[in-house]
Amino acid sequence: MTALTLSTAAAPGLRADAIVIGVAKGAQGPVVAPGAEAVDKAYDGKLAGVLETLGASGAEGELTKLPAPAGFKAPLVVAVGLGEEPGDEDGEDGYDAEALRKAAGVAARALTGSRKAAFALPVDGPGAIGAISEGILLGAYSFDAYKGSAQDAGNARAKNGKAPLAEAALLGGKPRDAAHKGALARAVAVSEELNRARDLINMPPNDLDPAAFAGIAQAAAKEHGLKVQVLDEKALAKGGYGGILGVGGGSASAPRLVKLSYRHPKAEKHLAFVGKGITYDSGGISLKPAGHNETMKCDMSGAAAVFAAVVAAARLGLEVNVTGWLALAENMPSGTAVRPGDVLRMYSGKTVEVLNTDAEGRLVLADALWAASQENPDAIVDVATLTGAMMLALGSRTFGVMANDDAFRSAVYEAAEEVGEPAWPMPLPEHLRKGMDSSVADIANMGERWGGGLVAGLFLREFVGEGIAWAHLDIAGPAFNEGGPFGYTPKGGTGSAVRTLVRLAELTAEGDLG
């Protein structure tokens, strides 16, 4: 990843390929943001006017390049839009962290191929340092593992002609300030793990089957001092994990359930994260139509997010116990695949009538949720690319949050908003539960068509232990970006929900989450 440093150097004398500054959308036109005073001075205080002449307005995501002024060692100034200038009406006296994160991401991506850039964006404390750092590291991300020849493996420049931005100096950051250094270190740990999740999501399914994913988790556990347990198909059968076995039964690649545990000696709380890990989803016997399965390698995005969050918690040394459960299977049609009409006996002992084999995520999650419940954690959060219905409701950039406790749902939603992950609280209407009544089993895996995302949430709730706070994040929309990159979000796997889970772990460690 891009190497980050904190610097108190003045922009004019810094050797770099570019100086990145912020420009905001003011009432009378573009406004040069704090941090760029030295650059503005070199333009005789007329930089805003120059930018406006070039068509800049300060709108979010807007990028304008212009030659650096005389006397600068960097040849280029890159002005990136921060959106509306902060006003006093809401008590705001600084730029929003997400605005800084997005602006840094846009600039970092635009500087692909550059050796070094200096970021002179507004810095008013450690929060800004963390946001800018995350934006740079996430915005500079690219997935190049499968480009170029085998001899070029690991050499991004050989594969696509341009390597990601190699180095970034954060001007205004204080190298000897503990809070600034801590914010930078946190951003690096979280961003590295989020980018690892992106790598997993982007990997082709012929290289990332359940066994391969489990192997990656085992290697990470060894590296970061985590405990790991992997249940293979024999152990799953012995344990009675009918949901995971049923979904994975049609594939030549056998399913796995991975338990990844981080423990802190002073922890007083325990969180369990559960991730849907369908490494490829054909729909099974209820086969997806053409045009709906080309990106289904991303159906393990929930497991990738959980994996990344547990490792990040360990790297940050958070004073909380965190257990990640990765429910891994490949959903394929074959003579051994589960059929519509089959009844599965789940790990909890409940029976499920399978009416649609493409509603498979809830089946693997049900087993993992019950397994997580047996440890009686203080809270469980599951993450899944679960339903197209959630995309119809909230679009492609917002995930839904459901829960069995209103206060916990609000806490999860607020954590997501705090870290810049768009989310929305969703209900679990009791009247929708009746639609999953089955004449042959305890419950069916399908219910009413309308409100399908909520029906899925109600199904999952059936497999959460009594008295345990639980939330369900349906990340079907934002998990995989099929459009062009924006802000710090690339095309392809996004790592959605990683930062929310990490923030929940931090809040729990601090005693601020219930």
From TrEMBL:
Binding annotation for Mn(2+) 1: D281, D358, E360
* Annotated ranges, domain Cytosol aminopeptidase: 356-363
Q: Name one Pfam family in it.
A: Peptidase_M17
The record places the active site at: K288, R362
The EC designation for this entry is 3.4.11.1, 3.4.11.10
Predominant location category: cytoplasm
User: What is the top-level taxon of the source organism?
Assistant: Bacteria
Which residues are Mn(2+) 2-binding?
Answer: K276, D281, D299, E360
Q: So which cofactors does this thing need?
A: Mn(2+)
| Entry's Gene Ontology molecular function annotations | aminopeptidase activity
Sorted alphabetically, which keywords does the UniProt record give?
Aminopeptidase, Cytoplasm, Hydrolase, Manganese, Metal-binding, Protease
The record's remark on the cofactor is: Binds 2 manganese ions per subunit.
Location of the protein in the cell: Cytoplasm
Catalytic activity reported: Release of an N-terminal amino acid, preferentially leucine, but not glutamic or aspartic acids; Release of an N-terminal amino acid, Xaa-|-Yaa-, in which Xaa is preferably Leu, but may be other amino acids including Pro although not Arg or Lys, and Yaa may be Pro. Amino acid amides and methyl esters are also readily hydrolyzed, but rates on arylamides are exceedingly low
- Listed NCBIfam families: PRK00913.1-2
Q: What does this protein do?
A: Presumably involved in the processing and regular turnover of intracellular proteins. Catalyzes the removal of unsubstituted N-terminal amino acids from various peptides.
Family of this protein: Belongs to the peptidase M17 family.
Name of the protein in question: Probable cytosol aminopeptidase
